[in-house]
Structure prediction request, 292 residues.
Amino acid sequence: MSLFSKTCEYALRAVFYIASKTADGSKVGIKEIARNVNSPEHFLGKILQDLSRKGILDSAKGPNGGFFLHPKSLKRPIADIVSAVDGDNVFTGCALGLAHCSERNPCPLHHEFKKIRNNIAKMLTATTIGQFNKELTLGKILLKEV
Amino acid sequence: MSLFSKTCEYALRAVFYIASKTADGSKVGIKEIARNVNSPEHFLGKILQDLSRKGILDSAKGPNGGFFLHPKSLKRPIADIVSAVDGDNVFTGCALGLAHCSERNPCPLHHEFKKIRNNIAKMLTATTIGQFNKELTLGKILLKEV
DNA sequence: ATAATAAAAGATATTTTTGTCTTTATTTTT
DNA sequence: AAAAATAAAGACAAAAATATCTTTTATTAT
Ligand code: FES
Ligand code: FES
Prediction:
């Protein structure tokens, strides 16, 4: 498996893209986003609509409309996106799928897994949505295969 | 999401259970396994048949038959189970779902994620199937909710 | 006002994952 | 040889995730 659902992967790639394209206050359309993060347009549309409802990004209809991020939003951790899309399983779930990860009734992998899960959480809360804008603009990092 | 598919979670829990019950050379039936790792019997049956075909565990039909593990198998890393069931995405996959995680064309999360993925791989190759037998027998760790 | 643009929403479809039920094959015990 | 036990296999079903297509609503520009 992967750390994130496919939906969440799309969401993260798209939000990174939007961040790097709208830091100057402009907007970007779903077609362009979908093309540049290599995701199905309408499916991604729903994902972004959902994130918009949840206040993670903003959108405007009509000509010159599109999705965009307020400067303030660029400071948010990507953990916000992950939990909005995938819930909190990645932050609190048991490695072996037990209903409640617990210190008192641990599964065999609990003690080792706990550390890994903490590292994941640390990474997701420490990295912000806007943190890669420069590198993305420079093409030093990518959101889709070349 | 979770680190492993549900199928893989069932597999790991079941193999741990089988390990702890057959270290003495006896065998254990699918009904008992399913009950003790809280998984759907027939579904788990297929999973174990598959692992059996792949040589990770063994089985015997007929009265007093069941699933069991050779002492040698107890030394194998649980990474073998994970890759047999879920493939190698957890060991090599990109955090953002790009087709090829790459050092030359990294995604935004690559550098941080690489470390985490290495820790996961390290844990999965370092822990063996039989390593928890004693604790399981003592009830200090669990394979299903109490 | 009208037309054009773009997101939002709705309906439907496909694929993958997860789960159930039934039958068959193999082995052991009697 | 017959009966019982047990895994293996096959067919089918339900649920969840992923994807597509169409219609509606809001906004802007003319
Ligand atoms: S109980 Fe399984 S990871 Fe904590
Ligand atoms: S390219 Fe994404 S994790 Fe390596």
Summary: Residues 6-137 of chain A form a domain with the Arc Repressor Mutant, subunit A fold (CATH 1.10.10.10). The two ends of chain A are 24 Å apart (CA to CA).
